[in-house]
From TrEMBL:
Pfam family, one: SHOCT
Name listed for the protein in its UniProt record: SHOCT domain-containing protein
Superkingdom assignment: Bacteria
Keyword Cell inner membrane (UniProt): no
Keyword hit for Transport: no
Domain SHOCT: 51-77
Keywords: Membrane, Transmembrane, Transmembrane helix
Transmembrane segments: 12-38
Amino acid sequence: MMWHHGGNWDGFFPMMFGGGIMMIVFWGLVIWLIVYLVRRSSNEKPYPKDQAIDILRQRYSRGEISTEEYRERLAELKDSLNV
């Protein structure tokens, strides 16, 4: 059997090129995932308009404000917060 010790680089360069692209894709996905998770965690805070309306509903349900006052304040909140 004869061994070939020549310079057969046919498989080396495509593999090196493909491996480089795969490394770039891998790190791109890792960075995208980190950015996605950071943005997602910062968006989980309750939105102020939702909080204001929830507080108003709680006060109304406890009887602290009348129906008329509830409707007026709710209309004002919706107008000012563009709900």
